[in-house]
Hints:
- InterPro entries: Alr0857-like.
- The protein is of the alpha+beta class.
- It has one domain (2-128).
- Helices cover 36% and strands 34% of the residues.
- It is globular, with a radius of gyration of 15 Å.
- The model has no long low-confidence stretch (mean pLDDT 88).
Amino acid sequence: MLKLTYTETSFHLECLAQSLEEWVAQRVILTLRVGQSLSVEPSTASFLLPANLPGLEQLKTQVQWEEREILALCASDCEYIEVTLSGSWLSDGSENVQGVFVTTLSDRTEFLLHKLWVAAQACASVLSE
């Protein structure tokens, strides 16, 4: 399962071994116990990866053969590829931009996507220094 946590200023991508159903069920139980609202709805999430990342061609192949229904790649411009995922958005139901997006892909694709995202973060931190 991939989990993207969105805050006002950024997002974080995690690859979890837990199934999507188990994770959502635990999240529902937690919000009930603490008396908070929880909204779960079908949605999409997008983020950018540098177009020159090593391994991006492998992801393109995975999408072409296995993940067409859940994962789409589109050239944003000459420097970035937009990754769009289909899944579920969990939030407190308010109109703010904070929440969690979850989806399930093949283990191989999840691992590769997480690896590429980590590499992109490393590149961005080097450039900002």
